Amino acid sequence: MAVFIKSLEVINKDMLQECGGKASNLGELTGLKLNVPNGFCIVAEAFFNYLRSNRLEEQILNISRDIDYEDFQDLEQKTSAIRSLIENAGMPSEVEEEITENYQSLQKDKLVPFVAVRSSVAVKDTDISSFPGMMDTYHYVRGKSEVIKNVKRCWASVWSARATFARQKKGIEHAKAIIAPVIQLMVDSEFAGVVFTINPVSNAREEIIIESNWGLGESVVSGKTVSDLYIIGKGLLNIKEKRIARKEKAFVKAEGSGGTWVEVEPGKVNKPTLTDEQVRELCRIALAIEEHYGCPQDIEWAYKRGVFYMLQARKANIITE
Length: 321
Fold this sequence. Notes:
There is one protein chain. A hairpin with a 5-residue loop joins β12 and β13 (259-263). The protein has helices at 16-31, 44-53, 57-64, 72-88, 93-104, 144-156, 161-170, 218-221, 276-293; strands spanning 5-7, 39-42, 114-118, 121-123, 138-142, 177-179, 182-185, 191-196, 207-214, 228-233, 239-243, 249-253, 259-263, 297-304, 307-315. The chain has two domains: 5-185, ATP-grasp fold, A domain (Dna Ligase, domain 1), CATH 3.30.1490; 191-315, 2-Layer Sandwich (D-amino Acid Aminotransferase, Chain A, domain 1). The protein is α+β, with helices and mostly antiparallel strands and 321 residues long.
């Protein structure tokens, strides 16, 4: 019986402290029979076991207690030293065996699968379930040794300068940070993006907002490019507004493995990423997720060969008066 691994099929939204916010919600979406890429979560205890096995806890504490948060260079230097400790330590054999076994179980047709190694975070004894954009995700990872290496990098990203500063600013003890990486089959998407079941700018609950771009969702969530924007009325799913961007760059699979930025083909630069029917189909999925959770949602999605895949769902940030 696995100790450090849980399949997405057995995870639900109430397993935040064990699996972090992303994995908990992916498990919940899997239970709703939505299209979620197959995968598993390396539970939080695996990270704490890793730190104990390599006697890293005291070393990390000694470095972190001396960080000068008013000096960015000092913050970056010391968090980099902590990340290096985590990335270069040895993986306990019992954890490595479980990761390897479950990674190999994703294999089909004798092909070694490409996966994404994604951060799933929480904070002990709180309901905090995300630090958007502060932890790292690795795309198109292939082979068991690369998976292990990128799990370590994902663990280490809990000590990114941004995440460390955010915890300090919010008064959260660093030792309470939970990270439980998710390993999922890679969706080599034609286009991808985000959908909000509330207008995040105006707070209009009767509107759905979709942003999309070619390639992976990184093209949208990174903020490095402009994306198509669709505003849809919830009642009739009528498209109230389309803003088709000039999409000159996209994030796609690099040669071999990993992801890279490329120039978009000239014929697709000004072409809409979504048809009107695809817009409505995505809205219907998003509204089903909102209904299940009972509150507005911020959802990441990808599209490949006629199928919308759900990559993340979390409560949308609502602007209060």
